[in-house]
User: What shape does this take?
Amino acid sequence: MSLFDLEGRNALVTGAGSGIGQRLAVGLAEYGANVTILDLAGQRQGSDTTAEQVKAIGREALVVDADVTDPVSVREAIGHHVSRFGRLDIAVNCAGVNHSCSAEDLAPSDWKRVLDVNLSGVFYCCQSEASSMFSSGGGSIINVASMSATIVNRGLLQAHYNASKAGVKHLTSTLAMEWVTRKVRVNSLSPGYIMTPMISGPDWAEKIRGFEEQTPMHRLGTPDDLVGPVIFLASAASAYMTGTDLLVEGGFTSW
Ligand code: NAP
Assistant: This one.
């Protein structure tokens, strides 16, 4: 049990006002961590809900409004975390956006927005998080990529999203190697189809039936399915792992 224990650790989760990030923030608290909940100011209600859930477990929570596409905003957010908790041990970079459009019609502004949030945002977060971890003796960074980093989703028009997630996967192993001697581990977590606000709404209902058929386990994942894998990557249980991509996709990429 102590292998997975996060008692006394201080974590930061981006995109923690909604979906996967919200559940992972609460999951880290369930295993003992205090948590900083970072999301856009427009998600304040969701972030406050996450904070209430963390506090209900008996852990401390800090809500920070920040935009991961702005490196200054990210640095300030990590500064707030360190002022409150003293050090950063675990960072989960989960903020992300998706958007559907054929490659031939994709506007440069949409290409840029998705790459800015999903790839540049992860880089700015890793940079500030690692800098804090270097000065406090190390830590674990987990970047939420996607199985779309590895496969092309049948029927979905999202060249920009897939490229951004492939970038996150390779950025992760590259940073892991740069920082391997400095006690900062960097791994990515790549979910398959997970039921969250990102894939809900009338446009998605028909597609979701297809995803269930295509997934060997014949169901979509839920944010709960990602808690165990993130605790594993955050904790001493994965002490000898860095630069890896952990796929959590109901077997999707095996077929
Ligand atoms: P979600 O419910 O939409 O959560 C994403 C959160 O990130 C939202 O609160 C969003 O705020 C926030 N965010 C967006 N841009 C941001 C920015 N610039 N700065 C700070 N926060 C920002 O989506 P989710 O499904 O939980 O996705 C979480 C992560 O998992 C994403 O990286 C996604 O690509 C990845 N993922 C999801 C699935 C899936 O099937 N759901 C599968 C594989 C990977 P707004 O809502 O205001 O934009």
